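Posting here for the record, re: iron/sulfur cluster.
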Amino acid sequence: MSQSQVLEKPLIQAMSASAAKASVSQGDWTVAAVEALFALPFNDLLFRAQEVHRAYFPEGDVELATLLSIKTGGCPEDCGYCPQAARYNTDVKANKLMDLEEVLEAAKAAKAAGSNRFCMGAAWREPKDRDIEKVSAMIRGVKALGLETCATLGMLEPEQAKALQGAGLDFYNHNLDTSEDFYRSVIKTRDYQDRLDTISHVRAAGMSVCCGGIVGMGESREQRSAFIARLANLSPYPESVPINHLVPVAGTPLADQPPMDPLEFVRTIAVARITMPKARVRLSAGRQELGRAVQAMCFQAGANSIFYGDQLLTTGNPEAEEDRALLAELGLKTKQHMKAEVTV
Ligand code: SAM
Ligand code: DTB
Ligand code: SF4
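Prediction output follows.
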């Protein structure tokens, strides 16, 4: 499928759903083509995104992923958005790696609340080999509970990726975060290429990739387009695409960043859906600030995953009960409910 086809006619008319599924596993998206999607009239963009979403996810279910910060704060990196960077004066206190039992208790609670996936996050630049051993025990325990496993531990060496895969890790989260040219104004302690390398080590080890980024950091629409094009052109593109809305945290360099236009956020979700049709596009950080109406538009635009639970890593998230109510009101089933064949 060429990008011009996406722009010129509705996808459903252009091809059957099965042909569509077969044809797009990797992209050749130019920044200009992605920008052209962003520039569509709002309703046309949402219509296209809905067509793609319905063709690829006929069930329309929403995946629920719960986060746990297994090692909080004290990070040596300088990511300008992050409250866990040791160099910024934020309210986050540095803690040691959590105990296995504590992690498993949190995973059990996530499962009981209806989560599908449990994602363990650590504020590391990269894990040490002894960390990999400890996290591997956590992965084995979480997996044994019947949850999908995900971890985000910073940069990985190929052998570390293999060890995590061997322990049963389904997904590894490592974000490109933004476009290559905007990246330097946000992070200086590691390169864009370092991130691409870790993603390829995760792929080579046979795990699924969870990779997205943050919008609302002051990037231009062109830079947002370049970021989405970069994700969509990964070969193959990520199975999970978390789109975080910047949570400005006091003490970080981005603390005073003005909020992004919510309709531009909805557009970003729609463009991610169109360019990465088979991916789970996740509404990630910043949902508390979006409110119900904007989130409802994001689901229309093709979002089909959320971080679920009262806490992200160090910042807040909508209460689980509030999310269940929102999904029920919108008539959206969750992945776990689909399995159990019951409605919310
Ligand atoms: N330390 C690891 C790393 O950076 O790869 C894993 C944890 S890190 C907190 C995971 C992701 O959280 C970042 O790549 C970024 O996209 C997101 N994130 C961190 N702080 C955020 C904020 N204030 N607002 C939105 N997203 C944020
Ligand atoms: C991702 O893209 N977003 C999550 C997860 N991957 C690890 C983290 C969001 C963190 C928001 C800031 C905080 O709570 O510390
Ligand atoms: Fe450290 Fe990750 Fe935060 Fe960057 S985003 S400062 S690597 S915890």
